[in-house]
Amino acid sequence: MEKVQIYKIYINEVEVILKPSSQVTLEDTVASGSLVVKYTGNKKHLLDYISILEKSIKSEKLIIHFEDFQKLKMDFKSHFTEIEAGGGLVKNEKNEYLFIFRRGSWDLPKGKIETNETKREATLREITEETGIKKMTIVRKLMITRHTYRSNVGKRIIKKSHWYLLDAKKQTPVPQANEDIERAEWMTMERFFSKKRQVYPNILEVLHTQDTAEIVSKVQIKIK
Question: Which residues, other chains included, contact 181 with Cβ-Cβ below 8 Å and sequence gap of 6+?
Fold first, then answer.
């Protein structure tokens, strides 16, 4: 059986999937809101897709496929600089999770991994800096998400975020104002999803991990 190969990233909240042509399915081609295109081998054509998505949302999902998956992925990433970040889904003894509100959206604490710092060290440091929460224990790694943005000088960046599940005693959060964090708040999943909230799609993926999927499935999810 052929090994499943996939590279998933969000551009302007659109889910972009790179995959080998041999693994494109009928479901891919008929799914509502999905656009499936074959890579021509010309890197400029990938940049055209990236530019269109950065300017406006044309579909819910874009699937780009090519016979040589490694070349597709390498050519796509050549248009970006990649940075790595560590972030966490922090749970307390009351089954509440730690959320932050920044720049109009609900988010989870995360930040760039510094030189000579491990992913886990960065995760613990960033959560403390952004929320004031201390004495956390990392339970396990949850997943990796990727999304793009532009730097202050217009450079295209891929942020590759490593997400962890953590335990902590309930403490009063202190939002980091100089990072534009307006609120840091403990909430159960039921409370978080009980009302309409602006949430980034990559954050929703973290909230739908095996640890919370059963809870989330029982409530009415309202976003945007």
Answer: 100, 101, 102, 130, 131, 175
Q: Does residue 221 sit in helix, strand or coil?
A: coil
- In one letter, which amino acid is 156? R
Class of residue 75 by CB neighbours under 10 A (exposed 0-12, middle 13-18, buried 19+): buried
Cβ proximity of 123 and 86 under 8 Å: yes
Interhelix angle 69-77/43-55, rounded to 10 degrees, is 60
Q: Are 163 and 84 in contact (CB under 8 A)?
A: no
Burial class (CB in 10 A: 0-12, 13-18, 19+), 23: middle
- 146-157 tens-digit pLDDT: 999 999 999 999
Element (H, E) at 76: helix 69-77
Dmax of the chain from CA atoms? 53
User: Percentage helix, strand, coil, to 5, in the chain?
Assistant: 30, 35, 35
pLDDT in tens, 118-157: 999 999 999 999 999 999 999 999 999 999 999 999 999 9
